[in-house]
Amino acid sequence: MTIYTSIRPPACKPDKQEETPMTDARHIILHWAEQGLITASDLPRALAVGQVLPTQERWRHFVDRLLLWMGLALVAFGLIFFLAYNWKVLGRFEKLALTEAMGVAALLFVWRFGVDQPAGKAALLGASLFLGALLALIGQTYQTGADTFELFGSWASMILPWVLVGRFPALWLLWLALVNLAIRFYFQAFPDIFGLLFNTERVLWILFGLNTAALAVWEVLAARGTEWLNPRWAPRILAAASGGLATTLAMMQILDADSASVWPVPAWIAWLVAAFAVYRHAVKDVFVLTGGVLSVIVVVATFTAKHLSHNDPSGFLIVGLIVIALSAAGGWWLKNLAAEDAR
Amino acid sequence: MSVFDTQALWLELKAAGLVAGEPPPPGAITAPWFVRVMLGIAGWIGALFLLGFVSLGFRVLLESPGVSFVAGLMACAAAGVLFRTKPDSDFATQFGLAVSLAGQGLVLIALGKELHNQAGLVALSMSLVQAILFFAIPNFVHRVWAACTGAYAIVFALTAWHLQVYAPGLLAMTFAWIWLNEFRHASHGAMLRAGGYGLVPALMGAVGMVASTAGTWMWRAGIHRPAGSEFHVWIGAGLCGIALLWTVWRLLMREDREPVSGTNWPILVAAGVLVLANFKAPGLAPATLILLLGYANGNRVLSGLGVAALLGYLPFYYYSLEATLLYKSVLMMATGAVLLVARLLLQKYWPSTSRQEGHHA
């Protein structure tokens, strides 16, 4: 306990922009400690009273989950590395048997623990990864001539029943990532006859539609009380994918208006309006709104840079100042939104 | 947490004898971490355009290293004044951030031109500039940036002197020291946390740097081969392992748990196997360290960065050339299997007392 024994003199002036949104006990207690209201020697106890530091039981829970998920990830990635090495000493039947055995073992764990237990969910995720490894091994061994998109498409189709029964956000995101990859590689295998740009735009449109639809379904089901969809990290990833694709489409139209279609910028504006309506009022999520602000900054900077700068130094200055002004205004708005919870 | 909750927290602390008097007024409104990340990215974009403005409008600044260096320092100083005089103005702080970043760009250009064949010296000088800015400019986003780029500059300097294998270990030890002492130096907590967050990308970047410049394939080509070759690599990787073991030990002591006791054996076994694996998979110990310290200090952002570091390292490890895929696969499967066995031991020697245990994913 030696680290807690010294008493520090009260506070030098804290940073004005330090992380004190005043929305959780950790930030509040640390802020009070910086103001000298809590001594350094009392700070650990204060954090314990505020339930910031883990208790013995929470520590046990954390170590348990860390060992489970890290162990699973290392075994699953290790198997994928092993198959990628294509070790000649082992014959194809031994490799197939090894991969299938690991998949069956994972399914036995699912059967043993059930899909509601963390160990069961981890085993189901492992089984899904092992199935992908098995499909890749079959393609490698028998040279089926299948395209990459067929591997990801088959993989996504075959694990869909497990995804449906798993009720597990990470497994759904894995499935969506596989579908995204299948679509991406399909258009790489069958490029559009009208040219590279049109093909790229079409892929982006399809991926944008897919991820936006997935996000909408997720939010609707979560709002209707599907409890396992409640954690915010998964829809935030989907929102980042959807918003990132909308932003990319808008930038493509701005930078190459002659080749791109006329729809990306209107779609981007529609996405922004919808995101504002949903994440400002229906499901308040400042993270997604922050992504929206960044998207506005990037698109406006692209537009102004395209039309103002070239070899004129004042153009660079104007764009720079616009970016600074937009980000300052956006930051002010977002800070106040985040602080609404604290009032 | 609402004002009511804040007051309730104050009363709880008061009842425990940890504070006295009336609760203080609410602090200044500041931004959540993701808003600060957005402001940092936007500041960087703004700085690029300001640099474009300077390079087109004031060519003389870029032509002479001396002028460029002085102009860069003046820009940083002006930003410092802005941060200190207008700390509550969103536009002024964002403008100051962009001006400072542009100033740092000018300093780097000047150093590169003046010391063009001495990459190590350029990097070391830049790390010194960033260290001064870290202490001089009282802005959280700017301090995270200064800590990150200053640490990266040290990694580049060590690489130029063929000592890069020591970079991850040194950064891991500094990182561990910062977060283990976060509460001890509470009055400087904001500065410590900015440094601690800035070291996360630098630490994982150093792991990547070692993998890409000190791998055996580069040695065979005779590039960047450190004197003593593998001996240095083992010591460098060992330093990361020591940082992890030291952290585990300190945390067990903090929790009033006798480190070498029956219930702690699974934890020590898991830490030990990660330290051993780290000799050939040198991102495992640093990523675990980030996650562990994040959880230990109740810091969800740091924990999230640790998870991202682990998930990002595994695909990176596939392409890094420390060992063959066969070697790496056996190492990972064996390590993973030991961790799963350690979990079984944990459940046996440190059983849960919670009825809800097992129902949270």
Note down, in words, how this protein is organized:
The complex is a heterodimer of chains A (343) and B (361). Chain A is mostly helical and 343 residues long. Helices cover 74% and strands 0% of the residues of chain A. In chain A, 43% of the residues are buried. Chain B has 361 residues and is an all-alpha fold. Chain B has 15 helices and no strands. Chain B has helices at 3-15, 33-57, 59-63, 65-85, 90-114, 119-136, 140-160, 167-180, 189-213, 216-220, 230-254, 265-278, 284-296, 300-319, 325-349. At the A-B interface, helix 1, helix 2, helix 3, helix 5 and helix 11 of A face helix 1, helix 2, helix 5, helix 7 and helix 9 of B.
Question: Helix content range of the residues of chain A, please?
Answer: over 70%
Class based on secondary structure composition and strand pairing of chain B: mainly alpha
- What spatial form of chain B do the alpha-carbon principal axes imply? flat
Q: What is the mean predicted local confidence, pLDDT of chain A?
A: 87
Total number of helical segments of chain A?
12
Query: What is the number of E strands of chain B?
Result: 0
* Gyration radius from CA atoms of chain B, angstroms: 23 Å
Features:
heterodimer, A: 343 residues, mainly alpha, 12 helices, disordered N terminus, B: 361 residues, 15 helices, 0% strand, flat
